[in-house]
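A sample follows:
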Amino acid sequence: MTDIERLSEQTQALLDECENRLATLEVNIPQVGKSTDESIVVNQTEKTPEAKNRNRAKNRAANQAALVQLCDTYPEVFSRDNVRPLKVGIQEDLIADEKLARNRIKRALASYVRSPQYLRSLQAGADRIGLDGAASGQVSEEEAAHAQEKLQAIKDQRREREKAERKEGRAEQRKQAVKAKEQRINKKLDLLLQLNNRTR
């Protein structure tokens, strides 16, 4: 890792820490010169669905960037093609190794271990690997069962989301059909009015 990359990561970590501290202060300290009603309105406008979607997209992008960096730094341990169970406590090992910023490690690990590929790799008796790529413990029956439950929950959520999207699509089609029918009726009424005006 070059000095520029290291400085960039350190700067990003400091910016993230500053943002977190500012957010904490904004929540805990009333703003001078603003009534509580104004601050409530400001906070409510920030929580619009569009703002939530933007924040979610930004977080997802940051998580994916951190994951790519983790895979590039430790290719023998983290891979999208050969996903294997990780050693319990690998986060502390990564932090101690100091190749990546702590916030990057947390983001990347969270994305990695929540992925369906990782959950599928958690089979009872499978070897867990440490930073050196060597076996370091095994997946227990309980851990494997928990992973299967999470996988099922992911499938259920996906099914519900697809069902809602199909329902929304059908509702949109119905709206379009009603709108088209109204337009046809309006045209016919206009023609009838024109014919009626001519016959007078």
Residues 164 and 170 are 10 Å apart (CA to CA). Helices lie at 3-28, 36-46, 49-73, 90-97, 102-114, 116-121, 141-199. Residues 141-200 form one domain. The first helix runs from residue 3 to 28.
